[in-house]
Amino acid sequence: MLVQADCVFEYAFYMSERGCCRSKLFFQICRNLTYKSHKNEHPLTGRSTALDAPITAVSTAENPWVVHLRIATTFGAGLLDSCVGSLINNRWVLTSGTCVQNLRFAWIRYGAVNVINPELVTETSSSRFNNRVGLIAINRAIEFTPTISAVELAAASDELPETGTLCGYGAQEDGSPGETLRCIEFTLSGQENDVFEGTSEGETSEFDIGAPLVSNGKQIGVLVRPAENGSAALFASVGSYKVWIDFETQSPF
Length: 253
Hints:
Elements: H1 4-18, H2 20-30, E1 34-35, E2 55-56, E3 66-73, E4 79-89, E5 92-96, H3 97-100, E6 103-110, E7 120-124, E8 126-130, E9 133-137, E10 152-153, E11 163-168, E12 182-188, E13 195-199, E14 212-215, E15 218-225, E16 233-237, H4 242-248
Keywords: Disulfide bond, Hydrolase, Protease, Serine protease
Domain Peptidase S1: 44-250
Pfam family, one: Trypsin
């Protein structure tokens, strides 16, 4: 899937937000970009690795913190990464460290049951990471709505629950990034250092990296390795990074 259609959409939205001159520059920057696989520079082929079973009911009102990320990297050679993140307050997004290590520019979609029709899109070039997790600074304060709001983060003292729900966009049959928000239940195993594993009957994809794992209204994990080919998914423990997250997000940038 070429990113050109995305750019046309975001270009129109950008004009309404920022005005003509800046939006023309934005279009010139992104019009030739294509999607990038985290594993290969060419699209994957074969069966879908989307979140395919068992899927829970999905709406942005039920998962208002989930955001979709398109990321241009320093060494991307004109290709875009696709990740997922979570809104943790009105100025910051939490995601995987691998999604932001070489971030040059990011487009953040909020309230997106389908990534083609998000409720809001913002852009930014500010990020930081600490080992397995990363933070993206939003370029303006986000106004919360019933379908766009922040998730509460688990504390270091919280015990790991037995199950959690992960929401992401998966992959399409041709290996390109998925476009529809889907959620899947994971059974969780004991934490070791800053990570824990989760198993499910379904599979996640490389494009779900950074997705939030939530239990009882709190985000407890960040997906850092998808569950594929029968392997367990690996999650970074939010509680293990809570002190760093709190310190970094004290100010907008």
